[in-house]
Design brief:
The protein has 176 residues and is of the alpha+beta class. Helix content is 34%, strand content 21%. The longest helix is centred in the C-terminal third of the chain and has 17 residues. It starts with 16 loop residues before the first strand and ends with a strand. The mean pLDDT is 94.
Length: 176
């Protein structure tokens, strides 16, 4: 089912769980959507919301060229409003929910990994294309090398990348 949630929740058949992963912050009126979700849930059903807990990090050492470039990219992203972390606790309460669980899930992965390299390429590509006006010419050139599969310095070819990331999780039930 495809739906524009700004137009409201589509008809649902009393689900036990409504899951919103890194999406609720895109809805124009999240509280209204959460109230609709409460009405649609099965008895004892829950809403689960997941959001990013900051931008992921890939440099194995902050003091390397990759680490300092990554830090500049994160600073530029923060200046552009990318790291606006949403706390849904108050919105859930205002929409008539009791928060049953709130947690930060930490993800860490080391060692050679194609999936970590692909994820790093995705993020550094985002930095390159979305922050082109905020980064220096030398940083943009470095990013071009890092995301090009043909470049010897490419992230595609690095075996030392790490992944450090986090997700914020809320599980809530409509108040009795």
């Amino acid at each position: 089912m495809v739906a524009d949630l700004d137009d409201g929740l589509p008809p649902l058949d009393s689900p036990d769980v409504i899951w919103a992963a890194m999406s609720l912050h895109h809805v124009a009126d999240p509280a209204a959507l959460l109230r609709q979700a409460a009405a649609a849930l099965a008895p004892d059903g829950v809403v689960a919301i997941v959001e990013m807990a900051g931008l992921p990090r890939f440099a194995p050492d902050a003091d390397t060229a990759l680490g300092t470039l990554e830090a500049r990219c994160h600073a530029a992203a923060s200046g552009a409003g990318w790291e606006a972390i949403v706390d849904w606790t108050d919105t859930l309460g205002a929409a008539g929910y009791d928060v049953l669980h709130r947690d930060t899930i930490h993800v860490a992965r080391t060692g050679p990994s194609e999936s970590v390299a692909r994820y790093a390429v995705h993020w550094f590509s985002q930095f390159r294309h979305r922050l082109a006006d905020d980064l220096s010419g030398s940083d943009l050139a470095s990013l071009d090398c890092l995301i090009s599969p043909a470049d010897p310095a490419s992230l595609h070819k690095r075996a030392d990348l790490t992944l450090r990331a986090g997700r914020l999780l809320w599980v809530a039930r409509p108040a009795a």
